[in-house]
């Protein structure tokens, strides 16, 4: 027997309290019908006896205490899945908005997903060639990794993400088993259009699933977007054996939506008003990257987040950094010098890199070269701060060499065209060429044998 | 008796209306799927349960069944070379029954109940056994002998012993009669509540170092067996890497590695690396002495809170057999955040930064379980606790770091600037400290001679001097310093790059014996002394630097293999010859 509950007891933001409900289960989806016939969906977020709190995805606008009919659906939030989902455009809650009709589901999957058993994970080792020197050499992306881009408003993270999608070569992947899931959370319409256009131009649109929650869409829907996107990605990767790259932008908007929801629920706030469970919540999404035994596919995540006020210690980038396996940090100073991609290499890192590079993967000298570039570039920063005090003229000869190395490193190595696709050998050779401007004795991070082999004397 | 049923649900917190017969910290099964939970609050209107699994789909009215016992773990053979989640469910068994994703309500026995163990009964009929004494032994792995002990709460006269032979986990091998005449059957395993420390006979002082093979730790900031250490550091500073290095190379008999709210890929890396890595001491895979507790960040938050206690209870169990155990908890901040999350759901009054007011007492309870002691089975055992801390925003003034600092005696502060320059381990030598020097110095003197302590204080003095000079250098550049100060900077560079920095991926550098550490210090200080003499004769320091000796010493960690320590004599000879040549 299906019961409609007429009216609600209380409305607070997007939360609605209903009394006298029987047989409800936690996290169940409810259908809410308004007087004028429009339908909304909501989720049960708290139960106290026969009183339930429902989060309405489309917002509580036009709801009143009397004009609604609520019906329990008896199941948690599920995403309809089928191979035909490729190439579709969906809204933030996973409903098609491209006018091509509903998805005829082969199966339905709970969008919250379940944790991958650590025993069943395959440790990621295969590297993804992005054709971007700074990333390939210094923070190599590995298949099955989650590597976020930490950016700020006005920086070129979107261009970088598009370039990665366009150039990414995954070994063993071709057009038949490579796909992109793109989740937009609270981004402007222009940004969404930019991604769409770029995907079309590079001819991958038929391999892309887009989930769009634009900045004027309801925030509650925004909280579902990454979960729906990852459910699609897991289905494509682990059941259809595809290599899926998931791009999620912008995670900061997601976290803000979560904060808004938490405060309207009256929860005790943690740092900067974000709920105490922000870490667990972010982790429940980021941890859905990886590879599992018994499946050929993989889920690689590139979440993009804008750091408010470029502050890397803000809770969102901070907690993200603790969960993800490294980060690519963009820098406003570099961007204003016209360097693209403006990757600030020192705070950037790829944790899985060490096992996916070197002999048999890229080249024997890769790790040593990367360590040396990091160490030498760190000295450049020291020399620059000294120069800002005493002036460049007064620096010791070796510090001057570092300043020169720093300039070249930024303008030749980090900087590259947004269609320029460098092979890993080109990038590594370029690195050695730049290092060879420094005296050999300064290069203490590289094994002597490799140093003799690759160092270019008398350049 | 009325059946207890669910009244309210909020995330992992479930409430039962009305007075119930449950007791605090009792373990309960929630709902039709029998999700594991624990009673965390009782008053006469409401009983509060925290559920260790995802609560989606629970309904008001679903039953809650008590177990009449606190949250406990099963202790017995099969713990080593295994991987569990936060409430001791075996993950590889779960994989076999459920596939790659963990579903709820899995009821798999923590330890293998069918496996036959080769048991040797050591107790005889008529023996009187006290709590904690051994009645049987069996080889658990090739290198670890498992000792079955009478539960610490029992004692009595042995009235039955089985023959030596093969037994399963729950087979009765010994029966004892206590003073009241009750007969207790002892199998190969026992249960113990995770939040109660296991008793010891008496605690001992921390007088033996835990040798880790990591130079900066062994030399500058040593930790004792039974000691406690904290490794705080922002993301990307190498906390996990340092923990892995310690787990691989420290000289404990047993390693308990708790991955608490960390990355899944990291755990699979530990699993893979440890099973491939051969322990040089006994030629067996590292996993033979290791047990892993993996509660990754996306697994239920309440189980994350329990995982730390599960880990320490397993560690104490092996300590009671007389082993030296080291437990790595990565990371205790995630555990503290789990406390905060649950406290928030209970609507408790928050203290600093939303953490509950009882955070310091919980932390101290945990770290106090680390000790070196005379154990009940006779002999000595120890539990060393090494906890990683992930401070929010890399800010060491946040509550978890500050409170951890109060309850641990070693503080290995990881530094972002060092990590950015890829100086690993990125332990900052100015901010870190160890309070174990005075306790451990007699051991160092006895085993390595007084020189070691002298070298160590010289090295720290040079580093402190350098850091003072660097303040000046930052303002006016290194060129204007007098030669003797330039020498300090040059020597300190050798210490930093050649000694403190250690390459975990280099076969000779990943583990370095104390003896080699001492010889390295000796060589560096010898060069410093010689060069200082030259500088005092008003010969420019550039002449010494031109000799290339400083550069040579920065590479000696790679150039001198661990089995050819006699090469250090040649280094000393070379230093003498070359420096004397300038002096002529």
- Number of E-state strands of chain B: 28
Radius of gyration of chain A: 25 Å
CATH third-level topology of the largest domain in chain B: Rossmann fold
Q: Low-confidence spans of chain B: pLDDT under 50, at least 5 residues?
A: none
Which structural class should the secondary elements of chain A be placed in? Answer: alpha/beta
CATH architecture of the largest domain in chain A: 3-Layer(aba) Sandwich
What percentage of the residues of chain B does DSSP assign to strands (E)? 15-25%
- Specify the CATH homologous superfamily of the largest domain in chain B: P-loop containing nucleotide triphosphate hydrolases
- CATH class descriptor of the largest domain in chain B: Alpha Beta
Percent strand of chain A: 15-25%
Structural descriptors:
heterodimer; A: 459 residues; alpha/beta; Elongation Factor Tu (Ef-tu), domain 3; Rossmann fold; 3 domains; eight-stranded mixed sheet; 34% helix; B: alpha+beta; 4 domains; ten-stranded mixed sheet; globular
Q: What's this entry about, in short?
A:
The complex is a heterodimer of chains A (459) and B (584). Chain A is α/β, with parallel strands linked by helices and 459 residues long.
Account of the 3D structure:
- The complex is a heterodimer of chains A (459) and B (584).
- With 459 residues, chain A is an alpha/beta fold.
- Chain A has 3 domains: 4-75, Elongation Factor Tu (Ef-tu), domain 3, CATH 2.40.30; 80-355, Rossmann fold, CATH 3.40.50.12240; 366-454, no CATH class.
- Chain A has helices at residues 133-138, 157-167, 189-201, 219-239, 251-264, 278-286, 315-323, 332-336, 353-356, 366-390, 397-414, 424-435, 448-454; strands at 4-6, 10-12, 15-18, 28-33, 39-48, 51-56, 69-76, 78-81, 89-91, 107-110, 127-129, 141-142, 149-151, 169-170, 178-187, 208-214, 243-249, 298-306, 326-329, 349-350.
- In chain A, the strands form 4 sheets. An 8-stranded mixed β-sheet of chain A has the order 9-16-15-17-18-13-19-20, with helices on both faces. A 7-stranded antiparallel β-sheet of chain A has the order 1-7-4-5-6-3-2, with no helix packed on it. A 3-stranded antiparallel β-sheet of chain A has the order 12-11-14, with no helix packed on it.
- The mean pLDDT of chain A is 89.
- Chain B has 4 domains: 4-72, Elongation Factor Tu (Ef-tu), domain 3 (Beta Barrel), CATH 2.40.30; 115-188, OB fold (Dihydrolipoamide Acetyltransferase, E2P) (Beta Barrel), CATH 2.40.50; 202-435, P-loop containing nucleotide triphosphate hydrolases (Rossmann fold), CATH 3.40.50.300; 449-583, Bovine Mitochondrial F1-atpase, Atp Synthase Beta Chain, Chain D, domain 3 (Bovine Mitochondrial F1-ATPase, ATP Synthase Beta Chain, Chain D, domain3, Orthogonal Bundle).
- In chain B, β1 and β2 form a beta hairpin.
- Classes of the chains: A alpha/beta (459), B alpha+beta (584).
């Amino acid at each position: 027997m299906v019961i409609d509950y007429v009216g609600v007891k209380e409305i607070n933001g997007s939360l609605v309290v209903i009394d006298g409900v029987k047989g409800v289960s936690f996290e169940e989806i409810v259908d809410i019908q308004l007087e004028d016939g429009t339908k909304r969906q909501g989720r049960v977020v708290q139960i106290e006896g026969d009183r339930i709190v429902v989060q309405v995805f489309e917002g509580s606008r036009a709801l009143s205490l009397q004009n609604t009919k609520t019906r329990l659906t008896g199941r948690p939030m599920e995403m309809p899945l089928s191979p035909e989902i490729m190439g579709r455009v969906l809204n933030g809650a996973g409903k098609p908005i491209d006018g091509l009709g509903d998805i005829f589901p082969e199966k339905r999957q709970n969008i919250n997903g379940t944790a991958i058993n650590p025993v069943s994970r395959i440790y990621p080792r295969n590297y993804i060639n992005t054709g971007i020197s700074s990333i390939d050499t210094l923070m190599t992306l590995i298949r099955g990794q989650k590597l976020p881009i930490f950016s700020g408003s006005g920086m070129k993270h979107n261009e970088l993400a598009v370039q990665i999608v366009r150039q990414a070569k995954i070994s063993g992947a071709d057009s038949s088993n490579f796909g992109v899931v793109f989740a937009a959370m609270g981004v402007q319409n222009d940004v969404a259009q930019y991604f769409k256009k770029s995907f079309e131009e590079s001819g991958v649109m038929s391999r892309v699933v887009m989930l769009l929650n634009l900045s004027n869409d309801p925030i509650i829907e925004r909280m579902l977007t990454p979960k729906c996107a990852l459910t699609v990605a897991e289905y494509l990767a682990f059941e259809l054996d595809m290599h899926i790259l998931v791009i999620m932008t912008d995670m900061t908007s997601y976290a803000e939506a979560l904060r808004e929801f938490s405060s309207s629920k009256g929860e005790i706030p943690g740092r900067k008003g974000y709920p105490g469970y922000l870490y667990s919540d972010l982790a429940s999404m980021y941890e859905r990257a990886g590879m599992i035994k018994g499946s050929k596919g993989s889920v690689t995540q590139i979440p993009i987040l804008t750091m408010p006020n470029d502050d890397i210690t803000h809770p969102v980038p901070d907690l993200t950094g603790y969960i993800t396996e490294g980060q690519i940090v963009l820098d406003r100073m570099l961007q204003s010098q016209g360097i693209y991609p403006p990757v600030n290499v020192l705070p950037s890192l790829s944790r899985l890199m060490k096992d996916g590079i070197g002999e048999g993967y890229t080249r024997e000298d890769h790790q040593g070269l990367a360590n040396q570039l990091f160490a030498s570039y760190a000295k450049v920063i020291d020399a620059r701060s000294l120069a800002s005090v005493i002036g460049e003229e007064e620096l010791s000869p070796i510090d001057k060499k570092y300043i020169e190395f720093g300039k070249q490193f930024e303008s030749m190595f980090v900087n590259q065209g947004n269609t320029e696709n460098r092979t890993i050998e080109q990038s590594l050779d370029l690195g050695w060429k730049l290092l060879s401007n420094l005296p050999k004795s300064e290069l203490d991070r590289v094994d002597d044998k490799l140093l003799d082999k690759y160092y270019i004397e008398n350049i | 008796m009325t059946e207890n049923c669910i009244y309210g649900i909020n995330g992992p917190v479930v409430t039962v209306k009305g007075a119930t017969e449950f007791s605090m910290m009792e373990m309960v099964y929630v709902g039709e799927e029998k999700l594991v939970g624990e009673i965390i609050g009782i008053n006469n209107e409401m009983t509060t349960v925290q559920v260790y699994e995802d609560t989606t789909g629970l309904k008001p009215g679903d039953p809650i069944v008590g177990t009449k016992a606190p949250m406990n773990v099963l202790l017995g053979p099969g713990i080593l070379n295994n991987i569990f989640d936060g409430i001791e469910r075996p993950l590889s068994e779960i994989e076999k029954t459920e596939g790659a994703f963990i579903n709820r309500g899995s009821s798999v026995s923590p330890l293998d109940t069918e496996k036959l163990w080769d048991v040797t009964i050591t107790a005889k009929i008529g023996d009187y056994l006290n709590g904690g004494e051994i009645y049987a032994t069996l080889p658990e792995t090739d290198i670890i002998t498992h000792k079955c002990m009478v539960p610490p709460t029992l004692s009595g006269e042995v009235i039955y012993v089985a023959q030596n032979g093969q037994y399963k986990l729950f087979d009765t091998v010994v029966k004892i009669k206590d003073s009241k005449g009750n007969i207790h059957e002892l199998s190969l395993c026992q249960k113990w509540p995770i939040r109660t420390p296991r008793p010891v006979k008496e605690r001992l002082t921390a007088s033996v170092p835990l040798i880790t093979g990591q130079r900066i730790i062994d030399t500058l900031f040593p930790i004792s067996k039974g000691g406690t250490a904290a490794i705080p550091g922002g993301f990307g500073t190498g906390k996990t890497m340092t923990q892995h290095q310690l787990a691989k190379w420290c000289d404990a008999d047993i390693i308990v590695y708790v991955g608490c709210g960390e990355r899944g890929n990291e755990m699979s890396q530990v699993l893979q690396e440890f099973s491939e890595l051969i322990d040089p001491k006994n030629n067996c895979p590292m996993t033979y002495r290791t047990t892993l507790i993996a509660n990754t960040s996306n697994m239920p938050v309440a189980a994350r809170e329990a995982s730390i206690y599960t880990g320490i209870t397993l560690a104490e169990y092996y300590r009671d057999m007389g082993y030296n155990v080291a437990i790595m908890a990565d990371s205790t901040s995630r555990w503290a955040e789990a406390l905060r999350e649950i406290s928030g759901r209970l609507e408790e009054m928050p203290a600093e930064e939303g953490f509950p007011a009882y955070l310091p007492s919980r932390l101290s309870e945990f770290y106090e379980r680390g000790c070196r002691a005379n154990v009940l089975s006779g002999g000595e055992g120890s539990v060393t606790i090494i906890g990683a801390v992930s401070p929010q925003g890399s800010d060491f003034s946040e509550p978890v770091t500050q409170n951890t600092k109060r309850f641990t005696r070693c503080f290995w502060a990881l530094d972002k600037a060092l990590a950015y320059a890829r100086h690993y381990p990125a332990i900052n030598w100015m901010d870190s400290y160890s309070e174990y020097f005075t306790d451990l110095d007699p051991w160092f003197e006895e085993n390595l001679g007084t020189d070691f302590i002298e070298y160590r204080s010289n090295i720290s003095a040079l580093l402190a001097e350098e850091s003072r000079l660097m303040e000046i250098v930052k303002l006016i550049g290194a060129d204007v310093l007098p030669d003797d100060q330039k020498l300090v900077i040059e020597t300190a560079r050798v210490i930093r790059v050649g000694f403190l920095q250690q390459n975990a991926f280099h076969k000779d550098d990943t583990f370095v014996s104390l003896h080699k550490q001492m010889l390295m210090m000796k060589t560096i200080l010898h060069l410093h002394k010689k060069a200082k003499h030259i500088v005092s004769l008003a010969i420019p320091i550039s002449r010494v630097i031109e000799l290339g000796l400083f550069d040579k010493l920065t590479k000696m960690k790679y150039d001198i293999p661990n089995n050819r320590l006699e090469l250090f004599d040649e280094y000393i000879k070379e230093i003498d010859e070359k420096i004397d040549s300038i002096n002529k």
